[in-house]
Write a structure and sequence with these properties.
single chain, alpha+beta, 7 helices, 19% strand
């Protein structure tokens, strides 16, 4: 029953992909992400599907070079999620998500506070920051279950690069003004209003 409902939801992804085989790969990877143990990397997802001993370059190409809009995957699920939210208000949860990275040449990566570090000793981690929005389905009204969150947006939320110490006063002032407009709260408000 649950698998049938999950596959019915993922069938809405079909128009996002140009080719049927790309859609089937995306569907296979989505199902594999449910069965993977540990970190859900693509290699582990393929291993959970029993495809780790096969040539998997096509699976990686789906993520790296295939032309499809990742935001469209979320957009196809939004009408189904909104159908469960009667009334004038839609409950939305916003959160910033950090993705640890090791490469030092990633353009928008930066050092940030590790949220798991204790308050008396701040640890830093190198990585990317994203803003995630989920619609909270009020299933407690009709069924005796807790609310469920359906992700509807996953946006990159990088910080501005700070100018060097030798930058002139005008550049420093422009940076301070832009930093006020590009903080996480302002980015979330622009997304909600836009």
């Amino acid at each position: 029953m649950l698998l049938t409902c999950f596959l019915a939801l993922l069938s809405l992804w079909r128009p996002v992909f140009r080719q049927e085989r790309s859609y089937r790969r995306a569907l296979r990877q989505a199902l594999g992400s449910l069965t993977v143990l540990g970190t859900a990397t693509l290699t582990r997802i393929l291993a959970s599907l029993g495809l780790d001993q096969q040539e998997g370059s096509a699976e990686y190409r789906l993520q790296a070079r295939s032309e499809w809009d990742e935001q469209a995957l979320f957009d196809t699920l939004l009408p189904t999620a909104l159908a469960h939210c009667p009334g004038p208000f839609v409950p939305v949860a916003l959160d910033d998500t950090r993705l640890k990275k090791t490469g030092k040449r990633i353009p928008t990566a930066f050092y940030q506070r590790d949220p798991l570090s204790p308050p008396f000793h701040v640890n830093l981690q190198w990585g990317l920051r994203f803003l995630q929005a989920s619609v909270l389905l009020p299933l407690h009204r009709k069924h005796k279950v807790n609310a469920r969150a359906v992700p509807v947006r996953f946006l990159a939320a990088p910080i501005l690069k700070k100018p060097g110490t030798r930058a002139d006063q005008q550049t420093q002032q422009r940076y301070r003004e832009q930093r006020k407009q590009q903080n996480l709260s302002q980015q979330a408000m622009r997304w909600l209003l836009g």
